[in-house]
Specification:
Strands 1, 2, 3, 4, 5 and 6 form a 6-stranded parallel beta sheet that branches. This protein is 47% helix and 10% strand. Helix 7 links the parallel strand 4 and strand 5 (166-170). The protein is built from 17 helices and 9 strands. The protein has helices spanning 9-17, 23-34, 44-52, 73-78, 96-116, 127-135, 155-163, 194-206, 217-226, 250-259, 269-272, 274-291, 303-316, 324-337, 365-374, 379-403, 414-418, and strands at residues 37-42, 81-88, 121-123, 139-145, 166-170, 209-211, 232-233, 262-265, 343-345. The chain has 421 residues and is of the alpha/beta class. The chain folds into 2 domains: 23-273 and 323-418, TIM Barrel, CATH 3.20.20; 275-321.
């Protein structure tokens, strides 16, 4: 084998150092300069509350431990983030009045980002304000209330959240509530009750987005029937690829296209990979076998034995790897079924325990956009995915609200509308 003369080595190194930049990186940067990248769902406020407790009000947010948090200011900048819907989530297992109190604290915590770092964040309420914040070099911050239980059956509480800057309401979280069925709980209403329909109407009147992540398919279809404005799924993926009820079926995707809404793709591995979903269910079944109360668990009273048995099971049944490419598959599928005008990004960063390879934090959005470009997506279509689609939905909801401005505020109650005693 011939070797290169040593005299050529400096020239080759210099040539490599001045090689043309990655064409996809350049294209992504151009798109994100013109269009704000908007993520529909990030649980950073709740993650701060959970992991640093009372220090959440004062902990420096510029740089946080990436092993603990998916988000910080430096990584938001590196990821080219232009707009973020911060989730204000509280457990659906709490009494609803407690959920209201905790929601108010989460809202204030999200507002504190802009209060503490005004050069980095700007709190916004409209599509135009979001574009202006992006143009000024700030991350536009919006709020999403992640669960209908958080209004405690009160349209007045819903209006108060709107006055505090909430931009969407997720109709349920993990539990079915008095007026809407959840995707992950036993149905009670076959979708929305009359009060649930009144909530959708009030959301339209207020200019708040109707978020259908977490709800049952019956609730999805009822909301799509009732709403006057386009809906969002703030963090859901394609059920045809991963068959969990948290994802969106092709039937509903076609309805979303007709409605003008947008499905913002989730990164949670159990909603991305069917193999990972099945593995997770099997693992949960093993844990239940070890600990089934009161007397039937294989390792009742023997926590070390249960721990070893689970480790042995995991060794024999390794966790399936989930990747950035699989997330892109969901985006491709939704674009194919509903159209490229109806897909976005809703990562669920800081709300999940693990993430796909290649999507470890908010700095990784450009890698996902580059993957789609490799698959043949045009810059214009990537811009739609990144932010233009949800901006269109926001503007449409604002227009609907303007047309309903003469209507009185809703005053219905669960008892009055649903006949609940």
């Amino acid at each position: 084998m011939k070797t290169l003369p040593l005299a050529l080595l400096p020239l080759l190194l210099a040539t490599a150092a001045h090689a043309a930049p990655d064409p996809y990186a350049a294209r992504v940067a151009k798109v994100l300069k013109a269009t704000p990248l908007i993520d529909g769902h990030n649980d950073w406020p709740e993650a701060l509350a959970d992991k640093v407790k009372d220090q959440r009000w004062t902990v420096p947010l510029n740089r946080l431990d990436p092993a603990t948090f998916h988000t910080d200011i430096e990584r938001l900048r590196a990821g080219g983030v232009g707009g973020q819907f911060w989730s204000v989530w509280v457990s659906a297992d709490l009494p609803e009045l407690q959920q209201v109190k905790d929601t108010l604290e989460q809202i204030d915590l999200a507002h504190s980002f802009a209060r503490r770092y005004p050069k980095d964040f700007a709190f916004v309420n409209t599509a135009a304000e979001l574009r202006a914040a992006h143009k000024a070099g700030r991350v536009a911050s919006l709020l999403g209330v992640e669960g209908g239980g958080q209004i405690d059956g009160s349209l007045a509480v819903l209006r108060s959240y709107r006055q505090l800057g909430a931009s969407y309401l997720t109709l349920t979280h993990a539990r079915t509530i008095a007026w809407a069925d959840s995707a992950t709980d036993n149905p009670q209403h076959d979708g929305l009750t009359p009060f649930g329909e009144a909530v959708v109407h009030e959301l339209n009147r207020l200019g708040m987005l109707v978020d259908l992540s977490h709800v049952s398919e019956g609730t999805m279809l009822d909301a799509l029937r009732v709403t006057k404005a386009p809906v969002i799924f703030s963090h859901s993926s394609a059920r045809a690829i991963c068959n969990t009820p948290r994802n969106v079926s092709d039937t509903v995707l076609k309805q979303v296209a007709a409605n003008g809404g947008v499905v913002m793709v989730n990164y949670a591995p159990q909603y991305v990979s069917e193999a990972r979903r099945i593995w997770s269910a099997a693992r949960s079944g093993e844990i239940a076998r070890y600990n089934a109360p009161p007397f039937n668990g294989l390792y009742i009273g023997d926590p070390e034995g249960a721990k070893k048995a689970l480790a042995d099971w995991e060794k024999a049944n390794p966790e399936p790897v989930v990747t950035l490419s699989q997330v892109a598959d969901h985006i491709d599928h939704i674009a194919k079924v509903a159209g490229v005008d109806h897909v976005g990004i809703g990562s669920d960063f800081d709300g999940v325990g693990s993430l796909p390879q290649g999507l470890s934090g908010v700095q990784t959005y450009p890698a996902l956009l580059a993957e789609l470009m490799r698959r043949g997506w045009s810059d214009a279509d990537v811009a739609k995915l990144a932010g233009e689609n949800v901006l269109r939905v926001m503007a449409a909801a604002e227009k609907v609200a303007a047309g309903m401005a003469g209507e009185p505020a809703g005053t219905g109650t669960v008892a009055g509308l649903d006949g609940v005693k």
